[in-house]
Structures are given as C-alpha cells and as structure tokens.
Specification:
Blueprint (H helix, E strand, L loop, with lengths): L1 E5 L9 H15 L3 E7 L6 E4 L1 E2 L5 H6 L4 E2 L3 H10 L2 E4 L4 H12 L4 E4 L4 H6 L7 H14 L6 E4 L2 H8 L6 E4 L23 E6 L8 H10 L6 E6 L5 H8 L7 E3 L3 H8 L4 E4 L8 H8 L4 E4 L16 E2 L4 H13 L1 H14 L5 H18 L9
Parallel strand pairs: 1-2, 1-6, 2-3, 6-7, 7-8, 8-9, 10-11, 10-13, 11-12, 13-14, 14-15
Antiparallel strand pairs: 4-5
Helix pairs in contact: 3-4, 8-12
Length: 381
C-alpha cells in the first residue's frame, strides 16, 4: 500500500507520538509498503513539507515541548493525499482535519489515531486535573476530528475506555506503539563514574505531568539517598526547575538526551526504572526499560495507562507521593535477589509488546479501512 502519515511534528526525538510514527514508518517500509509523511520540516523524497503555523504568545512553550503545528497549504496537502492509497492521521489538530477533508474529496480512505491525551495539553497550562476542562477538550476532539473517522487507533485499552465512555463511536483498534528488537535483557558493568552508586532512571519529557519532581523528592526520603544517582533522559520546559530542585541531593540528577544505543547502554547499568507520570496514553519508554531487565516502579494514577504494566503491587506507588515512592524504591533495593528474579519476569512480559505484532495489527486496520471504503458514502467532499 501507499500509506500517508499526517502528523504536525515528525522530525524530532523529543515527542513520543513522533517517535512512534518514525518507527511505524520504518517497519512498514520493511514489509514492502511505501510510506510518506505530511508534516513540518525539511522536504525530502518521503516528506511533503509544510510551513510551521505559529501561535502568538504560546509558540515558545509549544517549542519547549518539542512540538510545532503545521500550516494548511492546499496544494501540498492535495498532492500528498492524491498519492496515497490510505491516509492515517496521528493528531487531532487542524492539519489532520484538513487532510481528512482532502481524503474525502479525492476518494481516499482515512484512519486516525488517539495518541494525544487531552490532559497532556491542559497540564501544560496547569489545568490537567480540572475535569470539566479536560472533558471539554475530549468533546472538541470528537466533534472536530474523530466523528469523521470509522477507524481509530489507540495505544492502550485505557485510552480506548477513556474515549468510549465519552461517546466516541468509531471502531477502536487497541495497538501498542511497540518496542524494537534490540530492547531485550541487557546487563552491563557500571561505568567508572557510577561505581558504588545506585542508578535510577526515567525517560520522558521534562514537563509538569511527567512529575520528575516526585522522583527527586523521593530520594530525600530513601535510606539509600547518599548512594542514589538519578538519570533523566529527556528535554522540556521544566528543565531549569528540575535542575534547581536536584541540587538539594548529594548526587544531583543527570539530565541528557540519549540516542537508542546510548539509552540501551545506560538502562543496562541501572538498578531500577521509575515512571512517575500522572498522565500517559501508554509510556513506551517504560516498556523499553523493563524489556532490558529493569523492575519498574510506576505511579498508580487513574489518568495513566502505565500501571497496566505492573506485574504486582510492589511496582506501584501512590501517584504524586514522594514518600510512597521512597518506600517502593527501598523495598526493591532491600531485596536484590527478588529484584533479580522479577527482572527476568518483566523482560519476558515485554515480549508481548514487540513492534512486529503491533505492525501486523496496524496493517490489518488499514486494510480493513481500504476494503470497506465506499466513495459514495463521503460526507465531506
């Protein structure tokens, strides 16, 4: 098939949806499909490039999150859509809405994905837990985008349930974003600078809802505080705040960007992985961590899909509570033999999230959309 991905921001490594789109594109090409991207950025053989749509006042904050909105250039969008056999829209914004209208006009089947959790947007302006505002965003997404599609991909059952209870009527396909083959059980000796230290890592954007502050504050309550070295992989608007907060620790946190091999090498030296986020549609970084052989300690938030990965309650802590996180950390550090046993179980558990399985399911969804598509049913031509 000729598959067009429509996504505002694609060429970045600091946005989970963009990274998933990159991986899906690469894996689909391996299976013989042609994949092109309609997005912002530099044009290339496989990329239809659009200008950035800048939003006054908020543009700086948007870019700190590693994101850019795309403009709607009719000639570029039309060219991209006419090339495709099927159009897949990753985000619930103006570009994707316009691409769906173009797909209808040219008689092309289209599917959508629900990766952008509304709470992630409202959290950026400190309104993530204001229920009525969150529900309003869900309604806007449904009316302006998702009611137009018959097939919607969600990365977790949690997100499928969230949109179903809010009246989304499309057929929902629960498909994990998947992990690549090189995320497997891997252990390495600690680098000289880490000898004698306990390494605890989290991977994720440095933003309000990811709650890296909870991890920093939890270390202060741990009996192992003098030995713990935190490693945060990610960028984001809270970088300076977390840098300052981390100075209160004996071993201030390390912040950095890691490519895939560097990430695997670092995870392989760690003792625990903590995922403190209050809000997640899946958290593929957590799967990657326990796939390499780390026991995860996960915030048990009702707004997050990530607690589904915990094999038992020992890998959960009360969301937002540094003291309860310290309790969970100390339990696993106090019991190294049990931690080693569970590392093996978690690595085995991760195999069900292999990206090959996800791509097969994604292909099935696209094929179903193509097979049942009837241009005579178009609503937006």
């Amino acid at each position: 098939m000729k598959i067009l991905f429509v996504i505002d921001t694609y060429q970045t490594n600091n946005n989970g949806t963009s990274i998933s789109a990159q991986r899906f594109a690469a894996e689909l090409r391996k299976r013989g499909h042609e994949v092109r991207i309609l997005t912002t950025g530099e044009p290339s053989e496989n990329i239809y490039a659009l200008d950035v749509f800048r939003i006054p006042v908020f543009q700086g904050l948007i870019e700190k999150h590693g994101f850019q909105f795309a403009s709607r250039e009719a000639d570029v969008v039309a060219e991209a859509v006419q090339w495709a056999d099927v159009v897949h829209c990753f985000m619930p914004f103006a570009l994707e809405s316009y691409a769906k209208k173009m797909a209808d006009r040219f008689g092309k089947p289209a599917t959508a994905a629900f990766h952008i959790q509304p709470e992630n947007l409202t959290s950026s302006v400190n309104l993530g837990k204001v229920t009525w505002i969150t529900n309003a965003v869900y309604r806007v997404f449904r009316r302006r985008i998702y009611d137009r599609f018959k097939h919607v991909h969600t990365p977790s059952q949690f997100m499928a349930d969230e949109i179903t209870k809010r009246g989304y009527s499309a057929k929902i396909h629960v498909i994990s974003n998947g992990i690549q083959d090189d995320f497997v059980w891997t252990k390495r000796p600690k680098s000289p600078e880490f000898e004698g230290k306990i390494l605890i890592m989290m991977v994720g954007r440095l933003s309000v809802e990811k709650r890296q502050d909870v991890i920093i504050n939890a270390v202060k309550h741990s009996k192992y505080a003098d030995r713990i070295q935190l490693i945060f992989a990610g960028k984001g608007p809270k970088y300076e705040d977390y840098m300052e907060l981390g100075q209160s620790l004996k071993n201030p946190p390390i912040f950095g960007y890691y490519n895939r091999q560097e990430l695997i090498n670092t995870l392989a030296q760690c003792d625990l992985y903590v995922h403190s986020s209050d809000m997640e549609s899946e958290a593929i970084s957590c799967i990657e961590a326990f796939a390499t052989g780390l026991v995860p300690v996960i915030a048990n938030s009702e707004l997050s899909a990530t607690p589904q990965f915990a094999l038992d309650g020992r890998s959960l802590f009360t969301a937002g509570s540094p003291k309860d996180l310290a309790r969970a950390i100390d339990y696993w550090l106090d019991n190294p033999a049990e931690r080693t046993r569970m590392e093996r179980k978690y690595a085995e558990h991760a195999k069900r999230y292999n990206i090959d399985h996800s791509i097969s399911q994604f292909e099935d969804m696209l094929q179903e959309a193509v097979t049942e598509f009837e241009p005579a049913e178009l609503m937006y031509a």
